[in-house]
């Protein structure tokens, strides 16, 4: 029976890692593949290497937290570990079905918290610290990206090019090609650091799997996902860059990867998807507010109205350009207009910065996923298993 449970646990861990590799590779290297800087095969190679490196270094801190700090490691029997991994796998399924980036990290922590409450062994200090950072991280992601969008984005757009014009590659294009690959590797490292624990922390906590064998198992599963199902996500992300330009995607990756990397180093399991999504919203808002004064921009943030006025639904329109073709000139030939004097037509369309209904659904799922995971886990361990 123990052998069967252990085999099931390994299979679920591989399933989780496989899906992480499939989704994270597209996010990390979609811009590089979409700009023809990197092939899908090399994207998979780099994802495999840097995700494993992230998991084997600062990712071990997250494994320690999830495998023995929220609740004592002695509570992770083999059966309990398999049940918790089941909840993580279920979160991936829900995320895929609804097309919303539900956090596997938050779901896993919720399941572990449910076990801790049922057994009376949860460390509320550790749990409170984790939940506090769940609130701080997306807010930080939003405002950092908003500052970049408002003050730096147009200057970067003028100085860096991400698509080659031919054999005679310019300095701007070489810088862009280097950055698009380097930032992809950085994102892969951060994804490995934060997500490896989701696949193996319960098994490591139970003592059935060693720390570094667990990291190797998760890293191998991520690699399989990177070489197989990630090809589809690479196509999706790479071909969807008309909605999110390569520069914007790289800023989102850099800010979100830095936040999650620092939290992983501190042993805090947090959601890369949540931070990345808030980076997109923040970058778009900051970009759109270049047409207004700081006072007007603050008012728009409070009321939810677009800086340029008008109605509509959200989008990343603030990140795309909707210029009059006759007035358009290549980035290297343009000058950046001062804040407050930039033409609204060069920044955003007449759409609101976000769709309140869509944003509400996403935020609601972020709250519901760990909450439902914790409740279901508590009920299972309290009443079904009489833990």
- From the spread of the alpha carbons, the general shape counts as globular
Taking all residues together, what is the mean pLDDT? Answer: 80
SSE order, as H and E?
HHHHHHHHHHHHH
Q: Give me the number of helical elements.
A: 13
Class derived from helix and strand content: mainly alpha
What percent of residues are in strands?
under 5%
Query: What does the radius of gyration come to?
Result: 22 Å
Q: How many extended strands?
A: 0
Instruction: Please report the distance between the alpha carbons of the first and last residues.
Output: 18 Å
Major β-sheet, in short?
A: none
Helix content: over 70%
Low-confidence stretches: 305-329, 348-354
Query: How many domains, in number, for the residues?
Result: 1
Organism: Haloarcula rubripromontorii
Family: Belongs to the inorganic phosphate transporter (PiT) (TC 2.A.20) family.
Keywords: Membrane, Phosphate transport, Transmembrane, Transmembrane helix, Transport
Transmembrane segments: 44-64, 76-98, 133-153, 174-197, 209-229, 241-260, 363-385
What does this structure look like?
The protein is mostly helical. It has one domain (4-384). The protein is 71% helix and 0% strand. The protein has 13 helices and no strands. The chain has helices at 2-34, 40-56, 59-69, 78-98, 104-119, 124-159, 171-206, 211-227, 230-239, 246-265, 272-288, 294-303, 356-384. It is a multi-pass membrane protein. GO terms for molecular function: phosphate transmembrane transporter activity. Potential transporter for phosphate. One of its GO terms (cellular component) is membrane.
């Amino acid at each position: 029976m123990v052998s069967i449970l252990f085999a099931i646990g390994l299979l679920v861990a591989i399933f989780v890692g496989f899906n992480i590799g499939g989704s994270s590779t597209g996010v990390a290297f979609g811009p590089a593949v979409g700009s023809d800087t990197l092939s899908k095969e090399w994207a998979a190679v780099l994802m495999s290497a840097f995700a494993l490196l992230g998991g084997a270094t600062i990712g071990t801190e997250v494994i320690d937290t999830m495998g023995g700090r929220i609740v004592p490691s002695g509570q992770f029997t083999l059966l309990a570990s398999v049940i918790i991994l089941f909840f993580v796998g279920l979160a991936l399924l829900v995320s895929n079905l609804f097309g919303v980036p539900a956090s596997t990290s938050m779901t896993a922590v919720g399941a572990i918290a449910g076990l801790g409450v049922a057994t009376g062994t949860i460390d509320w200090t550790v749990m409170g610290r984790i939940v506090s950072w769940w609130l701080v991280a997306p807010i930080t992601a939003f405002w950092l990206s908003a500052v970049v969008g408002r003050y730096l984005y147009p200057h970067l757009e003028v100085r860096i090019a991400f698509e080659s014009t031919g054999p005679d590659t310019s300095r701007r294009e070489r810088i862009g090609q280097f950055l698009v690959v380097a930032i992809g590797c950085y994102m892969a490292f951060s994804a490995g650091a934060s997500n490896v624990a989701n696949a193996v922390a319960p098994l490591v906590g139970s003592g059935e799997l060693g720390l570094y064998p667990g990291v190797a198992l998760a890293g191998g599963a991520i690699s399989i996902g990177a070489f197989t199902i990630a090809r589809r996500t690479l196509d999706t992300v790479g071909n969807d860059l008309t909605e999110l330009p390569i520069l914007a995607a790289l800023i989102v990756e850099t800010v979100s990867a830095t936040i999650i990397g620092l939290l992983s180093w501190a042993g805090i399991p947090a959601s890369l998807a949540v931070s990345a999504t808030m980076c997109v919203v923040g970058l778009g808002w900051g970009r759109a507010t270049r047409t207004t004064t700081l006072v007007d921009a603050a008012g728009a943030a409070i009321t939810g109205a677009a800086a340029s006025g008008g109605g509509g639904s959200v989008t990343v329109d603030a990140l795309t350009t909707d210029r009059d073709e006759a007035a358009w000139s290549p980035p290297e030939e343009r000058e950046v207009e001062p804040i407050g004097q930039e033409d609204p037509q060069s920044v955003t369309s007449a759409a609101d910065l976000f769709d309140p209904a869509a944003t509400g659904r996403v935020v609601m799922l972020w709250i519901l996923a760990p909450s439902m995971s914790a409740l279901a886990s508590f009920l299972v361990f309290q009443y079904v298993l009489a833990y």
